[in-house]
TrEMBL record:
NCBIfam families: Grx4 family monothiol glutaredoxin (TIGR00365). Signal peptide: none annotated. This is Glutaredoxin-related protein 5, mitochondrial. InterPro entries: Glutaredoxin, GRX_PICOT-like, Monothiol_GRX-rel, Thioredoxin-like_sf. Keywords: 2Fe-2S, Iron, Iron-sulfur, Metal-binding, Redox-active center. Gene3D superfamilies: Glutaredoxin (3.40.30.10). The lineage of its organism: Eukaryota, Metazoa, Chordata, Craniata, Vertebrata. GO terms for cellular component: mitochondrial matrix. GO terms for molecular function: 2 iron, 2 sulfur cluster binding; metal ion binding. CDD domains: GRX_PICOT_like. It comes from Lates calcarifer. It holds the Pfam family Glutaredoxin.
Length: 156
């Protein structure tokens, strides 16, 4: 029981909202407390992951081998802009990561794109930003010069 109290206290210090289901006799279910703590740890880890690199993508597959059309579209958009240096996390390798990132961003779908630790959106949002020119501006804020600007200069 002491380990349960310690792990619950650690979760609370990490900022987790802890609800501890109880058995019929009033005892706390230890497994539930451990699951809640693991979820809180994952949310903290995700916060660190999205801040570690300027551009972070949670996707199905890898940039070299996307495993869905939406993830492939995000990779292609970034590639068009010359963004090759970004962190990509394959959610198909880890079910906890796949579900955890949806909770973290409050966004139900994969892929998910982050710039400087801030959630940008999924494939549809990135595509819209690409089409209306906002992506060039957002990349500029990150200190990334879009390759499309060079292409435009060369065509003139």
């Amino acid at each position: 029981m002491n380990s349960l109290i310690r792990s619950t206290a650690r979760c609370l210090r990490a900022g987790a909202a802890v609800y501890l289901p109880r058995q019929a006799d009033g005892r706390v279910l230890a497994a539930s407390a451990r699951l809640l703590c693991a979820a809180a740890d994952l949310q903290k880890d995700l916060g660190n992951m999205v801040k570690k690199d300027k551009v972070v993508v949670f996707m199905k597959g890898t940039p070299a081998q996307p495993m869905c059309g939406f993830s492939n579209a995000v990779v292609q958009i970034l590639r068009m802009h010359g963004v090759d240096d970004y962190a990509a996390y394959n959610v198909l390798e880890d079910q906890d990561l796949r579900e955890g990132v949806k909770v973290f961003s409050n966004w139900p779908t994969i892929p998910q794109v982050y710039f400087n630790g801030e959630f940008v959106g999924g494939c549809d949002i990135l595509l819209q930003m690409h089409q209306n020119g906002d992506l060039v501006e957002e990349l500029k804020k990150l200190g990334i010069h879009s390759a499309l600007l060079e292409t435009e200069k060369e065509s003139k």
